[in-house]
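Whiteboard transcription, Tuesday session. T.W. wrote the structure tokens on the left side:
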């Protein structure tokens, strides 16, 4: 059995040092005003895995990943500063201009389980029957990536999706729909 936990705090004034396609600073002439959470700031991260021999020749395993959500930018959704960039026009929330990366995407949780039974026959030969469940809790785990934004509009022209992180959610790596996989392996 192994487990680890990490608490982290990652702040910067520009998270685009390696990605030049987006400029999210309200003004590039005052980056000190942009000091906030970095786009890859994950506050809490927990991982756990275990493997156990069970009675009757069964073996069970589990892998758990859990972490807090990534930050994202609340923006208006159109260019009010007339700087040809609509991704740096921050939303006004509760009467204040929102800070960079001031909102959080949903947390991530993924639990994968495995059960295996080995049937031995002959010298060094066996057949293993395997059942695996991925995302056993069926958590939605909508991950909008590190470049997520949320379009709010203005108080005069609000947007229906205000407060939701946008960009196509990706569950391709972890946390997709619950899946059951059955398998057989022959060892010889």
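and on the right, the sequence the group agreed on:
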């Amino acid at each position: 059995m192994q487990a680890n936990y990490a608490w982290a705090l990652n702040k910067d004034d520009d998270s685009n040092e390696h990605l030049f396609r987006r400029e999210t600073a309200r003004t590039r002439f005052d980056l000190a005003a942009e000091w906030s959470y970095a786009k890859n700031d994950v506050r809490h991260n927990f991982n756990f895995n275990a493997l156990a021999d069970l009675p009757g020749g069964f073996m069970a395993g589990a892998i758990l990943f859990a972490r807090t959500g990534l930050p994202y930018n609340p923006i208006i959704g159109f260019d009010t500063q007339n700087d040809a960039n609509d991704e740096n026009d921050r939303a006004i929330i509760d009467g204040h201009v929102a800070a960079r990366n001031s909102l959080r995407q949903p947390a991530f949780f993924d639990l994968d389980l495995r059960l295996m039974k080995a049937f031995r026959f002959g010298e060094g030969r066996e057949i293993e029957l395997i059942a695996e469940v991925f995302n056993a809790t069926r958590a939605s785990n909508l991950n909008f990536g590190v470049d997520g934004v949320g379009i709010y509009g203005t108080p005069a022209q609000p947007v229906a999706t205000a407060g939701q992180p946008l960009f196509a959610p990706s569950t391709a790596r972890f946390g997709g729909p619950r899946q059951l996989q059955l398998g057989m392996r022959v060892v010889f």
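Someone added at the bottom: The longest strand covers residues 108-120.
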